[in-house]
TrEMBL record:
Protein name (Swiss-Prot/TrEMBL): histidine kinase
Gene3D superfamilies in the record: 1.10.287.130, 3.40.50.2300, 6.10.340.10, Histidine kinase-like ATPase, C-terminal domain, PAS domain
Assigned keywords, A-Z: ATP-binding, Kinase, Membrane, Nucleotide-binding, Phosphoprotein, Transferase, Transmembrane, Transmembrane helix, Two-component regulatory system
Lineage: Archaea, Methanobacteriati, Methanobacteriota, Stenosarchaea group, Methanomicrobia
Range of residues in the leader sequence: none
Residues covered by region (Disordered): 901-923
Residue stretches spanning the membrane: 37-56, 298-321
Pfam families listed in its UniProt record: CHASE4, HAMP, HATPase_c, PAS, Response_reg
GO molecular function, one term: phosphorelay sensor kinase activity
Domain PAS: 381-434, 544-617
Residue ranges annotated for the Histidine kinase domain, each copy included: 687-902
Recorded GO CC terms: membrane
Length: 1052
């Protein structure tokens, strides 16, 4: 048996047993056997691809030609239809010419004899000549006589008012030219022809004869029959989806436009111009696509022919390849398989011909000769390798992956005292001493992936029981799918015995050295401790000095330390900056010469304060009414404190003075006082606005009822409309009061407001002298805002900017993203959207800048002083702030900061109610329960809703509403919608009542209505159980629209 596991096995491809003898030739044979299928697939795929390409090309070319032919035919149809209309106009012109040239007509213009009219213009003449209108005007364009005949009923009817107004105005009575064409009237388009009536003697124009016929559906039907086309003539409005055709029709110089509608219909469009040459009507012809369908049929025939030709071509190619190529490859493959199965490497293939297949056969013969030679060389190499292994001085062995010995050399037999046959096939664990087994267990797992190359020392037992220490090196091997472990072992038993004796001598020497070292350590211990104590004291002193320096330089206050004589011995960086003295210059000077502190009366107090600290031996603090003057003349309000410094004997050794800049603190306190003032006024304004809204709700409701009872043409109707408009203007004022007082509780949504800024700015400046310069960043970030309130802020700022420039000017509006790096009261660092509105007016005087955001403060004759106050309140409730920048003689800019949002934009709520609807269309049906503590509001709501078809009941508070709702539900006639007032003094309001009703009926559809538009419920009504909201006072059309939307949903 050889060293390797397969040493005694017959080489692959050379054996004669039952093993697979086709590892080299099998894949080639299988490739040949499937070549027929692959060739057929390639030919088939190529034929299909060529067929598809030819079919698509034929379709594109042929259908393109048929489409062009079809469009040409439609253009001819359009020209034929326009010629038919022109022919009708020519007939009318001939009629006008005949009557204008008649002598009787000329005499009539002179004597105005009515018998001329009775004898010449009976109804039959109109019907027979197929025209509606005959009109005679004098030289001044005044109508002398006219007659209108309805061609359907064939008798005279009153001439339409539009004809009497427009036809005479069109006719140039003082001119002698003829006029014909289409005239667009309010009653419909009319084909007219007008000719001058020439005076017999003077040769001048005495009047005109105008003849007309309506281009109505009857006339269009007659034209359709005449031209055998499907015609329609409409006002100049293009069909949906072809709005891009408009410019082509207007600028096309009379050419029509042809559009296809799928594979079934084709339409042509042409422009008809009026008598003035302006675009007037759209002529449309609709027809089936017969030419196109014939083209499709022709394409189908071509595709079928191509498919048949491709199939025949593929079959012929497959048969030809089978005869000349594939069958010969099958014969060659069979011969190669026979040689591989028999293992006879001396056999050779027959080589017939000189083509590529013959070349393959010759190459296989060459390969067989090479393999025969290689097998001979391999046998010789195996014999030499076996001799080398058996003569080696080390143990050489192999294991399978389970740890069984598969080969060993002669040295292994000598060391173990066992023969090769006794070792082969047995687990190597049987020969390893138990203490060493764990060193190789991890490598004998049965998986080559877990075997790692390593070197270990193990002990093995010989047959006589002698223990041998071996240094073993294991290495995993892989050949194809076969894996094993190769090992080399060296006997190191004598080496380890020698090392143990050396370790004994070494340990004794170390004990001697250790005893001497202990004596030296004890001698140096006291010296080392003294050195450590001294170094610790020095490090602590340096650390304290560094900590004091860092502390003084990092604190925000100025620090000055003095001796008992008031001379400065220490000053930090903040103090040098505030006083203007350098550290080198200040040290040694008296504190009064550096720290120029003045009280409210302007007296120097630094030296006096230091004297009090040193003499009183206590801390002294002053936080108000002190001013520090710097060397550059600047003055800073400061707070100051002083404390004595004591030595170890508790004696005063000096003093430390700390002072701080309180400019920001004073500004913050001033802002707090101003905000408290605004909140106080705002609370009062909010209460007044709520009561006023309730009164306005009753007023607007009664005005709506009064308008229903008054005809629209009554003078009182317009007065009622004006009164209602004034009431809603008053509502706007109250809304500004609420917005100012509490911000109007914005209903925030995530939105991109670039377009809102642009549209609001343009709308606000409409009709004014100033112009806009708008700059909106392309990447404007989203914000969480109430778009209505932000629009109000922009509108107020635009109006203020325009009023600041009475003679007009340019208002600059800019929206951009900005990153605030540091604290900028009252907002913190972060990403913001900044809207800037700037003017080039005179600026705002410094003495009133602090009051411009106060409510009711204004410098204008008109206005109520709530504009900027409302703006500030709205922006503050959005988490932002308004910054003012102004310079006298240059202009003013207001900058609005709004926090950026990371949320995606919200889509508008589906089914939202429009802002305004005509009350005549505001009607519906359903059962409504109205709860309000104001009896007048209930009475008005009941009257209005009943007139619009609703069934209405009222309730004075929440308890009554709950009782009525339950009674209606149990009685089988439930309410569709419940409208609830939010607050009821002394009773249950809507917020409490809706919770109980939802517990009783989860399907409840409740709408909240209140004059408190700033209440949180109004802004987030869905969180409280309501389905919608409407603020009082409201327009009745809006109220009914909200009801109809939710009654319809409940019905669905």
């Amino acid at each position: 048996m050889g060293l390797y596991p397969d040493a005694d096995r017959t080489a692959v491809g050379y054996g004669t047993g039952d093993q697979d003898t086709r590892p080299f030739y099998g894949p080639l044979f299988r490739a040949f056997s499937s070549l027929r299928i692959k060739t057929a697939l390639i030919i088939f795929a190529t034929s299909v691809a060529l067929t598809i390409v030819m079919a698509l090309t034929s379709q594109a070319l042929m259908l393109g030609g048929f489409t062009a032919l079809e469009e040409q035919a439609m253009q001819e149809n359009l020209a034929r239809a326009k010629n038919a209309i022109a022919e009708d106009l020519s007939k009318l012109d001939m009629i006008a010419f005949t009557w204008a040239e008649a002598d009787d007509t000329g005499r009539f213009m002179g004597d105005r004899d009515a018998s001329y009219l009775r004898s010449n213009f009976p109804d039959e003449n109109f019907v027979g000549s197929d025209f509606n209108l005959f009109m005679i005007t004098d030289a001044d364009g005044e109508i002398v006589w006219h007659k209108y005949v309805n061609l359907v009923y064939e008798h005279e009817m009153p001439t339409p008012k539009s004809l009497l107004e427009q036809v005479p105005a069109l006719s140039p009575a003082t001119g002698s030219e003829a006029i014909s064409g289409i005239l667009m009237l309010s009653s419909g388009p009319m084909m007219i022809a007008s000719r001058p009536i020439m005076a017999g003697d003077s040769g001048g124009v005495s009047g005109r004869v105008t003849v007309g016929r309506f281009l109505d559906q009857v006339e269009i039907a007659r034209l359709s029959r005449q031209t055998a086309l499907s015609l329609s003539i409409n006002e100049l409005a293009l069909p949906s989806g072809i709005s891009d055709v408009g410019e082509r029709l207007v600028s096309g110089g009379g050419a029509g436009v042809v559009l296809t509608e799928g594979d079934d219909r084709i339409a042509g469009y042409a422009l008809l111009r009026d008598v003035m040459g302006a675009p007037a009507l759209l002529l449309e012809i609709d027809a089936p696509r017969e030419i196109y369908r014939e083209g499709q049929n022709a394409v189908h025939y071509v595709i079928i022919a191509i498919l048949l030709i491709g199939g025949v071509f593929s079959a012929l190619m497959i048969l030809l390849l089978q005869k000349t190529f594939i069958s010969r490859l099958e014969i060659l493959g069979g011969r190669i398989a026979g040689i591989g199965k028999g293992g006879n490497l001396s056999a050779r293939l027959d080589v017939d011909g000189e083509d590529e297949i013959a070349t393959v056969a010759a190459s296989v013969n060459g390969m067989l000769a090479s393999l025969e030679n290689a097998r001979s060389l391999l046998d010789e190499s195996r014999e030499r390798y076996s001799r080398v292994i058996n003569e080696a001085k080390e143990i050489i062995f192999t294991l399978d992956l389970e740890g069984n010995l598969t080969s060993v050399n002669r040295v292994a037999e000598d060391l173990t005292g066992r023969s090769r046959d006794d070792l082969i096939g047995r687990p190597v664990r049987e020969f390893i001493a138990p203490p060493y087994l764990h060193l190789i267990e991890g490598s004998l797992t049965g998986k080559i992936e877990k075997v790692q190359e390593k070197t270990v020392e193990i002990g093995i037992l010989s047959k006589s029981g002698w223990l041998h220490i071996l240094e073993v090196r294991l290495k995993p091997q892989r050949q194809g799918e076969h894996s094993w472990i190769f090992g080399i072992a060296r006997d190191i038993t004598e080496l380890r015995r020698t090392e143990e004796e050396l370790d004994l001598h070494r340990n004794h020497l170390e004990d001697l050295i250790r005893e001497r070292t202990d004596a030296l350590i004890r001698a140096n211990a006291s010296l080392n401790q003294e050195i450590i104590d001294r170094k610790w004291a020095e490090e602590r002193l340096a650390s304290e000095k560094k900590r004091l320096s860092v502390t003084l330089s990092s604190i925000a206050e100025g620090v000055i330390s003095t001796d008992t004589g008031g001379r400065i011995v220490l000053i930090n960086e903040i103090a040098t900056t505030m006083t203007g003295f350098t550290r080198e210059k200040a040290c040694g000077m008296g504190i009064g010469s550096v720290l120029h502190l003045r009280d409210a009366q302007g007296k120097e107090v630094a030296a006096r304060l230091l004297e009090e600290v040193l003499s009183g031996k206590k801390v002294l603090t002053l936080s108000r009414d002190l001013t520090l003057s710097g060397q550059d003349g600047s003055e800073i309000p400061v707070s100051i404190s002083g404390s004595p410094i004591h030595d170890e004997g508790e004696n005063v050794a000096g003093a430390v003075v700390i002072f701080r800049d309180i400019t920001g603190t004073l500004k913050y306190e001033e802002e707090l006082r101003r905000q408290e003032k605004i909140r106080s006024i705002g609370t009062l304004a909010g209460g007044i606005a709520h009561d006023f809204n309730n009164m306005l709700a009753a007023v607007t409701g009664n005005l709506s009822i009064a308008r229903m009872d008054v005809p629209e043409d009554s003078p009182a109707y317009s007065h009622l409309c004006d009164a209602e408009a004034a009431a809603f203007r008053a509502r706007d004022v109250t809304q500004q009061l609420i917005t100012f007082s509490k911000g109007g509780a914005p209903v925030k949504k995530t939105a991109e407001i670039g377009e809102l800024v642009r549209e609001t700015a343009r709308f606000s400046l409409r009709g004014r002298k100033s112009t806009l310069c708008i700059m909106i960043a392309d990447d404007l970030c989203r914000v969480d805002v109430d778009t209505g309130q932000i629009s109000q802020v922009i509108q107020n700022l635009i109006i203020n900017a325009d009023q600041a420039m009475p003679e007009g000017g340019t208002i600059e509006v800019k929206a951009e993203n900005i990153l605030v790096q540091q604290e900028k009261p009252p907002i913190g660092p972060g990403r913001y959207l900044r809207i800037t509105v700037g003017d080039h007016g005179t600026g705002i005087p410094e003495e009133i800048r602090g009051r411009i955001f106060d409510p009711y403060f204004t410098t204008k004759k008109e206005g109520n002083g709530l504009g900027l106050a409302s703006c500030q309140s709205i922006v503050r409730n959005h988490g932002g702030f308004i910054e003012l920048q102004t310079e006298m003689g240059v202009g003013t800019a207001f900058k609005v900061y709004l926090p950026a949002s990371q949320k995606p934009p919200e889509k508008p709520e589906e089914g939202a109610c429009p802002a305004e609807r005509p009350e005549k269309s505001a009607s519906g049906m359903g059962k409504v329960l109205v709860m309000d503590d104001n009896e007048e509001i209930i009475r008005v709501a009941e009257a209005l809703l009943r007139r619009r078809g609703f069934v209405v009941e009222g309730a004075a508070d929440g308890l009554e509403a709950i009782d009525r709702y339950r009674a209606a539900q149990e009685g089988g006639a439930p309410f569709d919608v419940v409208v609830m007032d939010l607050t009821v003094p002394g009773g249950m309001g809507g917020k409490e009542a809706v919770r109980e009703l939802l517990a009783y009926d989860p399907g409840l559809r409740a709408i909240v209505s209140s004059g408190y538009s700033d209440d949180p419920v109004m802004a987030d009504y869905r969180s409280y159980g309501f389905v919608d909201v409407i603020a009082k006072p409201y327009r009745m059309a809006d109220f009914i629209a909200v009801l109809k939307r939710h009654i319809r949903k409940s019905g669905d």
